[in-house]
Amino acid sequence: MVSTYLSYDLVVRDLKSSLNRVASDAETERLSAYYKDNIDKVTSVDEFLDDYRLYSYAMKAYGLEDMTYAKAFMKKVLESDLNDSESYANKLTDERYRNFALAFQFVGQIKDVQTNAQETAIVDGYKQAQVDLAGDVEAETKYYETAIDTVTSADQLVKSKRLFNYVLEAYGIDRGYYTNDHFVKILTSDTSDPNSYVNQLVTNNAANSAAFLKMAQAFNFNADGSLSAATAQTADQKESTVYLYVDGTQSYVSEYTLAREKKYYAAKMATITSVSELTSDQRLFDYVKTAFQFDVGMTSSVFKSIVTSDLTDPNNYAVTNGGAAWVAVAQKFNFDTAGNVKAGYAAQQDVQLIETNSAYATFYDDKDVERMDSMIDYYKKKLSDLTDVDVLLGNAALRPILLKPFGIESGEFTDAELRKVLTSDITDPKSYANRSRDERLVKLAEAFNFDGNGDASVPLLAQNQLTITRTAKDYIINKIRFLEGDDKTKAKTAAEAETKYYQEKIQTVHTVGDLLADRRLMDVVLGAYGFDPAKVSDAFLKQIFTSDLEDKKSFVNQQTDENWTELLASFNFDGDGNLTRETVGTVQQRGTALETAHKYLRQSLEQSEGESNQGVRLALYFQRMAPTLTDAYGLIADSALLEVFRVTYGFPSEFSSMDVDVQAKIVKKNLDLADLQDPDKVKRLLQRFTAMYDMENSTTDPVLAVFGDGSAGISGDLLMSIASLKSG
């Protein structure tokens, strides 16, 4: 008679070949092919349960074959929301049911117009667009300030597209409606002559006539178009034009604006001789209001009363109406009670000017920041419950954030065109966005999750939502396994930080390149699948992720550890390393379908070996399950694992009837569960088990009852397990 160890060793010596042998069995091959071909056709729990071949295959794979008859019970398991700790599957003490539910997505994945990562990207893109706009404004202004001084005629200015577009932007005029001749006539008009071309436009109340007049007043051309001064604009005219351009083009003030305003304020304040001069220059007065946090509606008369207060009088206007704050403002200026600059002083001395500039720099962008934050909050609130693309396009307030991050101008595309973009399947080369060959439109389509009908859809991620949840959970479990006390608390905190990073970053991964470029993210995945990241090189990972799962000779399929194929299959990448919907599946994602097939083969192998020697089946089962244990109670709760322990260490058959806590103490005393992570130590333990097993079962085989004969039925222990729900 062949010993149990030899029989076991023959199986595990080349486990892959042993599994392949089982897979080549005609019946197994037929059932596996049926499962692979049909699981994606299932759309509901009832469909799944009614297809006995699919249902029984999955039940056997997850070690639940004896419960195949309990359809009503399993329906509750499969319909559990695993994100809810109070759901049916989560409250069952037997983890196999939760793991079974995790393998499917009958509850349905969450439809979301934008994931958190997509929302963050578009909000950051909007903010960056404002920064980029400020850079563009600065570049265009520097060009204008230099180039305008080289202009020698009105005709030259009008024909200089970049230069004259700057002018038109400044004065709010659309070039498309007018001819060059029209603009030349305006620029060469004598603004003091009521019969001039531009003044006649004003008289007749023509469209944009006020803007035309303002533009004409900003330049110095003779009637024949030649210069009437040394340059086309004086310094003040140029500054006025630039101010209008900068103020009108930017949605939000920038540091460039800050620098310009500080320079303007300092230059002008050096010439101020009275309060009225200051307040009559709206740009100066706005600067002061911002610096000293006055209401925008503050009148020039109130401001004059503040800064002309006699501070030697304890009952002066500033102190009696505004207290210390207004007194502090009055101290920043050198005006007498009549409103004139005091003899021997400037309107503001150096220290006063520095303090005013500092205050302005502190507050100059407050309103814009508040406005931006308000707009972003509004966007997030609206997107949180938005489910229809037409509602998105129909909300004008959302349009800036929708388009600006992608460099798309308002009115550049019709709503009908934008709808086609937003409902494009970005993985389809023939989709509207991809066929446009406009990278801006492709990026816009990638930023939202609408289906072809314009309804919210499930986001296409590198891994689906359940896989992400499961990966994070498995990573934490593997990191805290066997730890206790402070060590466990610290390890859990660190693991949770890593999984938080993983759950956020995985949403931003669009290609295999993105994934492999972030080793921190990849290490969480490796840890979840039981691999030591320190022992896995980048080169090895590249070979894994460029493997073809369908090619049995590919690199990943040559690995002895099937976890590598399951890891690869958990990602939604095509052969080129890009996201694809083809791997997503319906009720089961590609990775879990492959895992189910692997589990089925392993269960079949163990069951087959058990037909001739239950000791081999016990050893194979222990080898598979032991590394998943986290404590002694997990071992005790599994009758097959407990039987291996009992036999290995020579305890009597009555051992399982002892008090559970006593059993746990005995397990801990005899077995370091951490050793079960070491394949060599597991091998030595099973050598001892098989020897002890043969000694104990030389004539009879008392462990047949551990697994049963595979027929319908349920043990008393399993019934208790099902009935016993977690108390907390």
Automatic annotation (TrEMBL):
Origin: domain of life: Bacteria
Pfam families: DUF1217
InterPro entries per UniProt: AGR-C-984p-like_sf (IPR023157), DUF1217 (IPR010626)
Protein name, UniProt field: DUF1217 domain-containing protein
Annotated source species: Ciceribacter thiooxidans
Native organism taxonomy: Bacteria, Pseudomonadati, Pseudomonadota, Alphaproteobacteria, Hyphomicrobiales
